From TrEMBL:
Entry-linked Pfam families: Put_Phosphatase
Cofactor(s) the protein requires to work: Mg(2+)
The organism's place on the tree of life at top rank: Eukaryota
GO molecular function, one term: hydrolase activity
Source species taxonomy: Eukaryota, Viridiplantae, Streptophyta, Embryophyta, Tracheophyta
Matching InterPro entries: HAD-like_sf (IPR036412), HAD_hydro_PyrdxlP_Pase-like (IPR006384), HAD_sf (IPR023214), Pase_PHOSPHO-typ (IPR016965)
Keywords: Hydrolase, Magnesium, Metal-binding
NCBIfam families named among the record's database cross-references: DKMTPPase-SF (TIGR01489), HAD-SF-IB (TIGR01488)
SUPFAM superfamilies xrefs: HAD-like (SSF56784)
Protein name per UniProt: Uncharacterized protein
């Protein structure tokens, strides 16, 4: 769906730079920024695991000065084609089973990573962190 939206924006003459400028308006709560910076300063290995996409996440994190805090971003890859169109690709082959019954195929990153950290947004003001661990294909 998001890839289709990028196609539509491109057909209306919107550029990748204009999309990036809009993403810079995405707010992050000051306490979220502080928590990320504090965890990084304490030596925590922070990773983003998301069903969003590389371009959106990198743009938002860089704008808020947080990109350097993360050792890895595990999400849907993106590229800009020769016509300047933002292309978003699925992290997984969506036509085959990804081996996990706990989450949607596009969100699950367990097959490549033995651990995942998920941030679950229940409401705009209620951000809960949940640690999910897998060992030998078992949910711990």
């Amino acid at each position: 769906m998001l890839s289709w939206m990028m196609e539509e924006l491109h057909s209306q003459g919107k550029t990748v730079e204009q999309i990036a400028e809009c993403l810079k308006d995405v707010p992050l709560h000051p306490k979220t920024i502080s928590a990320i910076q504090s965890a990084h300063d304490l030596g925590c290995d922070l990773k983003v695991v998301s069903d969003a996409n590389q371009f959106y996440i990198e743009t938002i994190l860089k704008h808020h000065g947080l990109y350097r805090c993360f050792s890895e971003v595990i999400t849907n890859p993106t590229s800009v084609d020769g016509e300047g169109r933002l292309k978003i690709f699925p992290y997984h082959d969506m036509t085959s089973f990804h081996g996990c019954n706990l989450c949607p195929p596009n969100l699950c990153k367990v097959s490549q990573h033995p651990f995942c950290y998920f941030l679950k947004l229940k409401e705009i003001t209620d951000l809960n962190a949940q640690v999910v661990l897998w060992s030998d294909d078992e949910f711990l």
